[in-house]
Amino acid sequence: MFPIRKRSQKIIIYYKVIDASKAILEVEDFFYAVHQLAQTTMRNVVGEVELNELLANRDRIAERIKEIVGGTSTSWGLEVISVELKDIILPEDMKRTMAKQAEAEREKKATIINSEGEVIAAENLAKAANTMAKSPGALHLRTLNSINDISSDQSNTVVFVTPIEILRAVEGMANHFRNKNK
Predict the structure, then answer these.
(1) How far apart are CA 37 and CA 76, in angstroms?
(2) For residues 34 and 73, what is the distance between their CA atoms, to the nearest angstrom?
(3) How is the chain split among helix, strand and coil, in percent rounded to 5?
(4) Which residues make beta-bridge pairs with 7?
(5) pLDDT at 4 over 50
(6) In this entry, which stretches build a coiled coil (predicted)?
(7) Quick one: pLDDT band at residue 158, thresholds 50, 70, 90?
(8) Radius of gyration of the chain (CA)
(9) In degrees rounded to 5, what are phi and psi of residue 63?
(10) CA 1, CA 7: separation in Å to the nearest integer?
């Protein structure tokens, strides 16, 4: 017997009648029964997977539907030949939920990438600080280089921060020279 195709808006199922007496006696309307079983099974199987899995593994999902529908419809005298997912129409609230999930995943990945960059930057800064600490005058040269870079642009205002210890040392030296000159 030739395969019979029962169509719906979402799923196409190809099957053939292998035992006509069972197909007529086991169910009232096997066309309708297999169609409803396929639709219900598709909703259940699709509901168990995430959107990206659904989009990436349509063939595997169609095979799963074929197994379930084929297992039940065999007792009706039918053999399921093929199942194709033609169109999957998702309710609006499910689309919004899936979009929120996808956005959360993107934000999670962005946060992870950003934090990995921060770790690398911190490690590099620590290496630079260790190198400068080992070389006398390196920090002073780096400061002078930074001031030079900033001063090349006329629109910048340079604020030179001097540690209070240096100011106290200069003040102490000034007091020392004043007392010495008296």
Answers:
(1) 12
(2) 7
(3) 70, 10, 20
(4) 12
(5) no
(6) none
(7) low
(8) 38
(9) -65, -40
(10) 19
Residue 19 in tokens = 């035992």
Nearest to 26 by CA among 70, 72, 68, 75: 75
Six token digits for residue 14: 């190809």
SS (H, E, C) 155-174: CCCCCCCCCHHHHHHHHHHH
Check: CB of residue 87 under 8 Å from CB of residue 9. yes
User: What predicted TM-score, i.e. pTM, was given to this entire model?
Assistant: 0.48
Q: Are 34 and 78 in contact (CB under 8 A)?
A: yes
| C-alpha torsion angle, residues 132, 138, 139, 143 (rounded to 10) | -140
CB 73 within 8 A of CB 23: no
Express each pLDDT in 76-100 by its tens digit: 999 999 988 877 766 788 778 878 9
